[in-house]
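Q: Is it fine to ask for two folds in a single conversation?
A: Yes, each is treated on its own. Send the first.
Q: Here.
A: Result:
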Amino acid sequence: MSHTAHIPSHRKPRRSASKLALRAGVAGGVLGTIAVAGAAGPANAEPVTETIEMPTLGSLDAGTGLASAVAASAEASQQEALDQNLQTQEDAALQKAAKEAKKAKSEADRKAAAERAEKARLKAEQERKEAAARASRDSARTQLSSTSASNDSGSTASDSGSQTQAPTGSAAAIVAFARAQIGDAYVSGGTGPNSWDCSGLVQAAYRAAGIDLPRISYEQSSMGTSVSLSNLQPGDILYWGSRSGSYHVAIYVGGGKYVGAQNPSSGVVEHTMDWDTPSGAVRIL
């Protein structure tokens, strides 16, 4: 073997200078800390026999549970606040609806009261007009009964002349139909054949002569030509009240008489002109 051959060394490799310096620094720091702690402590200090335990996994779980409980409480508080806000809104809506309903009822009651008052006023006005018409007829009857036959007015004389006038043509058909219904019942809205009201009888009598008339009394008295009570002819329509607002009609049949559906107690009757003097007359024929 060559004397120059490499012989492996059995010594441990030297540590690097940097690692040795690092180890020395750490060891020196630990020793220095122990020395300072020993110097600062009391001379008769007892050796430490207890160690400080680090938090365990169980304690960490307890903290997590507490945080969850706090979060749940906050969420519950928030939900309670939302519920209270919703309840407040619902209460406000109910109060508003109640106020509106009360206001609507008050308005409806006011309108109903106004309608009742208007109906009462119209009824009173109608009764006043009828009373005035009755008073006028009573006055006319009194005046006629107090006048002697020798001092009758020209209208009475003319009417007397018409008493001898016999109806002909359409007038005869109208008069004959009206007289044929004498004794029938009076029924409001009646149009025959056995019960009538005043305008229903007049309409049917004219229909018998081939003439169509409106159904209502004030419409019938608004037709034709106005004639005076001193110049009547058979078939003329007599009316009570104003011409455009009459409340009763009948048919003049000649001889100073008329036929009409008078009222429920008397039915269809024939009366003389002075029994209930009409307000006016119209001629259709």
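Q: Second one now.
A: Result:
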Amino acid sequence: MRDTKESRLLLVLLIAVAFALITVDIRGGQDSPVDGARQAAAAVFGPIEDGVSSAVDPVGNAVSAVRDSGERHDRLARLEKENAALKAKLGSDDRNRSRLAQLDKMLKIAGEGQYGIKGAEVIGIGAAQGFSWTITIDIGAGEGIKRDMTVLNGDGLVGRVTTVGPDTSTVLLASDPDFTVGTRMEGSDELGFASGQGDRPLRVELLNGKAEVKKGDRLVTFGSEADRPFVPGVPVGVVSRVDPSGGGLTRTLYVTPYVSFSKLDIIGVVVQAPKKDPRDEVLPAKPKPTPTPTVTVTVTPSANAADSFGQQQSDATGQSDTSGQSDATGQSDASRPPRPDSTDQTQTDTTDQQQ
């Protein structure tokens, strides 16, 4: 197309219409007038993405074994058998071992929170509908998926379902700037709202501006009315920074999410909410502090040092004895009386002189 005044005007009009449709869609929510067109797009493009994923993925049907978890009370025994079958089928290569680990973690978090889930695989990033922070998964209305269902994985909250096609669905990630979820802090039960910031930590506004918060505190989802779009108790993240309290009505903190949104593969859609709020039970165990070792040094004299010390004592004793004998001998010589022969000679000389 030649760059003419008419072509530029047409481009401007198309952009204006696109922004208008986006605005109408966001404000319309579930009753959006363009929801039908979006579902039609999902129906057209979803099977294509699903077909490509199935052609290149040797474990495409493995996760389907855990999609229907059934009754929660007898789930553990059945899951053990399914896991054993999956491990035998998936083999031992690194990618499949990673997927098995993800699957095990997700089943564990679902069991602890008593969430009824349907397993799924991520088959697309940035869905065909044009969202920036979304993924496409390989299950849809045919598997009972509906809009505004909670999505999680083995680490915590992934997002919520926004669009459902016959065989695929679109999930808005918690990192999307349009994503907001109610949160509750572990222990203190302080409530707030977390919003996505792309590849940066989540921004959380606590309702209590004077709340006591510190780095390392953890948050879970508070839950929604009728458990849509969010069920309670799903781990959200850990506080990484707290803004100083300015005396306002709210307090701002930043939370590092548990989920790595760039490494999503095996996820689960919560199709049945827990009968009881799990509160903090689904949070991972806190790491125990490592004790500081105490080192005690004991000095033990060696054999050579003992012999040297004994020799020094012997030399000192010998020197003392010799000196003592010399002193004693000298004292004896000075005080000893003259010999008898000397006395007799002196007396004889004196007698002779008198005579």
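Q: Anything structural to flag on that second result?
A: Two points. The first strand starts at residue 116 and ends at 125. The CA atoms of residues 342 and 348 lie 10 Å apart.
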